[in-house]
Amino acid sequence: MGTWRDLGKGGCAVKTNLLFAARLEECYGSLTKSEKKVADFIREHMDLVSEMSAQKIAELTGTGPATVVCFCRSCGYSGLLELKTGLKRETVVLDRADDLEIQAEDSVSVIKQKILKYNSAVLDCVMNGMKRQSSRQ
Questions:
Q1: φ, ψ for residue 13 (rounded to 5)?
Q2: pLDDT in tens, the chain (137 residues)
Q3: Closest residue by Cα to residue 28 from 16, 17, 38
Q4: How far is CA 65 from the centre of its chain?
Q5: What does the alpha-carbon distance between residue 55 and residue 43 come to, in Å, rounded to a whole number?
Q6: Burial, 27: exposed, middle or buried (Cβ in 10 Å; 0-12, 13-18, 19+)?
Q7: Which of 49, 44, 93, 95 has the alpha carbon at shortest distance from 72?
Q8: What is the Cα–Cα distance from 47 to 50, expressed in whole angstroms?
Q9: Quick one: three-class SS letters along the chain?
C-alpha cells in the first residue's frame, strides 16, 4: 500500500506515506464497502486528496461526505482534516530525504547511514505529530 517514489538513477524507490499505509492496512478489513471505495481512492490519489473536500472525494467515489468522514475515523483519524494534515506532513519529511538517494557506487556503510537518516526523519515526523495531538487534548 502507499505510493512508490523513484529515487533516481539506481532504480531504487521508497514507499511514501508509510504511516497512512500502515493505518490503512490495519483498518482495511473492517471497513464497509463504501469506506473501502474511499480508501482505495485516497490510496491512489494521495497527492491530490490534501486539496479536496469531503464532498469532492464523495463525488469522485460515488459515496457521501459522511462516508468519507467515517472512513477517516475508522482508520484512527479525528476526521478528514487530520488525515490530510498527516499526509502532507509525511510527504514533507520524504521531500527532505532527497539527499538520501542510494547511488550504485554507495558502499554498504553509506547505504546504512542513508537508511538510518531516513528512518530518523520519519520518527521525528511521528513524534512531532504525537506532540501536537497530545497538546490538543
A1: -145, 155
A2: 333 343 333 333 334 455 788 888 889 999 999 999 999 999 999 888 988 999 999 999 999 999 999 999 999 899 999 999 888 777 655 555 556 777 889 899 988 888 888 777 777 766 766 666 566 55
A3: 38
A4: 21
A5: 17
A6: middle
A7: 49
A8: 7
A9: CCEEEECCCCCCEEEECHHHHHHHHHHHHHCCHHHHHHHHHHHHCHHHHCCCCHHHHHHHHCCCHHHHHHHHHHCCCCCHHHHHHHHHHHHHHHHHHHHHCCCCCCCHHHHHHHHHHHHHHHHHHHHHHHHHHHHHC
Alpha carbon distance 10, 6 (integer Å): 9
Here the cell at position 37 is 471505495
Place of cell 491512489: 44
Other Cβ atoms within 10 Å of 137 Cβ, number: 4
pTM: 0.59
Gap between the Cα atoms of 37 and 45, Å rounded: 12
